[in-house]
Amino acid sequence: MRKLINIKLDIRFHHQYFHLPPSTLQSLFPALDTFSIRSHNTSSSESWILTNRPIKRLCINQIDTRDHTLTDVLTKNSCQLELLYVPIINFWLPSQDPSPYLNLAFIGTVDIIVTASSQQSLAILRPLSFLKNLRMINMRLIGPLVLMFWDDSFFMEMEVRHPELLTVYLATRPGDFADYESAIVYNRVGDGEWKPRNVRYLTSWQLATGTSYEMHEKVINF
Question: Which of 120, 127, 58 has its CA nearest to residue 92?
Answer without folding.
Answer: 127
